[in-house]
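ok, trying the design again with the full structure, not the truncated one.
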């Protein structure tokens, strides 16, 4: 009777080791992916910030150009005698 019980315990111990190993492997992969995604997110946020600054600079440049090119209408009317 002890033999089947020992075999069952050994089998359960092997299953437990394999499951534990698989879980640790998956958790390691998840951690590595999470770290990678965090780095990518920070890089993307930085690039987005830089792109917004450049867009603001272009908007200001275009606005200044448009304001500089406006044709001024004389305020005093010309009278012909």
């Amino acid at each position: 009777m002890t033999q089947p019980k020992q075999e069952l315990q050994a089998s359960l111990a092997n299953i437990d080791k394999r499951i534990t190993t698989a879980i640790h492997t998956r958790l390691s992969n998840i951690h590595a992916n999470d770290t990678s995604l965090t780095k990518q997110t920070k890089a993307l946020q930085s690039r987005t910030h830089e792109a917004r600054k450049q867009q603001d600079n272009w908007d200001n440049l275009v606005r200044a150009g448009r304001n500089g090119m406006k044709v001024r209408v004389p305020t005093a009317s010309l009278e012909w005698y």
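Keeping the full-length input from now on. The chain has a mean pLDDT of 87.
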